[in-house]
Amino acid sequence: MTEEQKQILLDLEVKEEEMQNYYFSEDKGLFTPSYDKDNNMIKTGEEVYKDYIDSMNNPVTPQPTADEILRAKLIQDNANMQLQLAQQQQINSSLLTQIAKLGGTQ
Questions:
Q1: Per the confidence metrics, is the pTM higher than 0.85?
Q2: Which domain holds residue 88?
Q3: Whether the Cβ atoms of residue 39 and residue 21 lie closer than 8 Å to each other
Q4: Residues 82 and 72: beta-carbon distance below 8 Å
Q5: Residue-wise burial string across 34-58, b where 16 or more C-beta atoms lie within 10 A, e elsewhere
Q6: Left (φ > 0), alpha (ψ -120 to 50) or beta: where does 13 sit?
Q7: So what's the pLDDT on residue 60?
Q8: pLDDT for the residue numbered 34
Q9: Domain shared by 68 and 50, yes or no
Q10: Quick one: pLDDT at residue 104?
């Protein structure tokens, strides 16, 4: 840790015995330790930094919710029904044309 970094931590009122748990990245970012609800340190600043880099390099792709999956299925089903309806209308139109050519209904 450089003197400049140490002074930054002193200005932030970090106790000297805790300074080794803080981490300055190469781009001068400061990563602080992570604590649990009982104020026990669970990760050092460097571990927090590594987790940050890992999450930047391997972003989590959110999975669709059950509602989103259902909505997509309903949209797909609706599109399929619309297609079937259009096909049936075309068949009906062809049948009516053929009936008309044969002389219509008696």
A1: no
A2: 63-106
A3: no
A4: no
A5: eeeeeeeeebbbbbbbeeeeeeeee
A6: left
A7: 82
A8: 94
A9: no
A10: 59
Does one domain contain both 88 and 102? yes
Contact 3, 26 (CB under 8 A): no
Domain boundary pick from 57, 80, 95: 57
| 39, 12, 52, 47: CA torsion to nearest 10 | -60
Give the list of residues 6+ apart from residue 99 with CB closer than 8 angstroms, or none. Answer: 105
Distance separating alpha carbons of residues 41 and 31, to the nearest angstrom: 13
pLDDT tens for 41-90 read: 999 999 999 999 999 898 888 899 999 999 999 999 999 999 999 999 99
Count how many domains the chain has: 2
Q: Which two tokens stand for residue 26?
A: 């190469």
In this structure, the answer to whether residues 9 and 53 fall within a common structural domain is: yes
pLDDT reported for residue 24 = 93
